[in-house]
Amino acid sequence: QIFMPLNFLGFVYREIRGSLTNIENLFTLLAKKPAIVDRADAKELNVTKGQISFENVGFSYHEDRRILKNVNFVVKAGTKVAVVGESGAGKSTLVKLLFRFYDPTEGCIKIDGQDIALHTQDSVRRHIGIVPQDTVLFNDTLYENIRYGRPDASELEIEEAIKLAHLDTFVTRLPDKGNTQVGERGLKLSGGEKQRVAIARTILKRPPIMVFDEATSSLDSQSEQAILSALREIAKGHTSFMIAHRLSTIVDADMIIVMDQGQIAEQGSHNELLKLDGLYTKLWQAQQKNSDND
Ligand code: ATP
Fold it and tell me: Where is the ABC transporter domain positioned along the sequence (predicted)?
């Protein structure tokens, strides 16, 4: 008589513990997002092509320190742009503004000609997929963690996304395949594996604009190649915006923006920038020297 209720209590306890950890994750996420309030007359953003333009963008986190100054560039729909520069140059800040975690202090950011500050945050974020350096995994199965990209996705679509994200070999090695529990209380995934989960989520979401924050921690070269080839496949036909730390990964970008102390120092293709013999060339040569020494 006592076994059933105790068993049930154990189940309830585990459920609550699981939800609490998910709520903690949610709070960590929310804590990173300062409140930007939509205007009362904010409209839905309508994205047809996915062209991005930054027009005289200036930004300060705090009044006394300007982080971005006079940033101007256009990313044509369907092209791949990479942002490079030393640590603290302002690369991640550009992405935070594009995702409307903050609004510019000066100038504006347009997607398909519409100023995003005048549109709802929700509608802006719906059209952008982000593959961050550190992906948050919820305490759930691997499948459910991927389904998070689009809750109504079918199992077949999830399987397809797993293949495109080059996660299939990894999944076949798991004890319960895609039904294995991952996250804080389950299997811990490596940085590269977590990034591939984020890529699979983005594949399900299929947003017109994709942002990829390349991991700084050195992945082994096999993982790096798998991630890069997954990205190339999913980025086809989409506008992609990549924060790159290793220049060797972005030599094929349509445009490279070189940031220096919150300003654009140079922009162009890899070969155009090398001809300028400026900051990009210095960064390139420094990285070539490091890889020779490895
Ligand atoms: P990294 O390559 O190291 O990631 P980054 O080029 O992406 O650097 P950002 O993260 O954009 O640089 O930071 C640009 C500047 O803004 C830095 O000086 C940083 O200290 C400052 N900064 C970033 N986030 C905040 C914040 N939330 N509040 C105040 N200052 C911030």
Answer: 52-286
